[in-house]
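Sample intake sheet
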Amino acid sequence: MKINTYLKIKNDPNLQRYIRENSYWYKLLNRNPNLIDKMIENMKKDYRLTVSDKIDSLNSKINLLKTLMDTFK
């Protein structure tokens, strides 16, 4: 694995956890270090860290607050 790929994984705890849980990425990254972007994309999908996931989470929190406010009225 190239050093820049290794450092990218080492500096991100989510990537570290993801590569440990999905060890096949070790082999893929050793063969083609350019796949790091694909791995990051997959990690974000699996851990629900994409922008759309964050918006959905915020929306659900707002709906919860709205429901609580309506309850207290």
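Comment: The first helix runs from residue 3 to 10. DSSP finds five helices and no strands in the chain.
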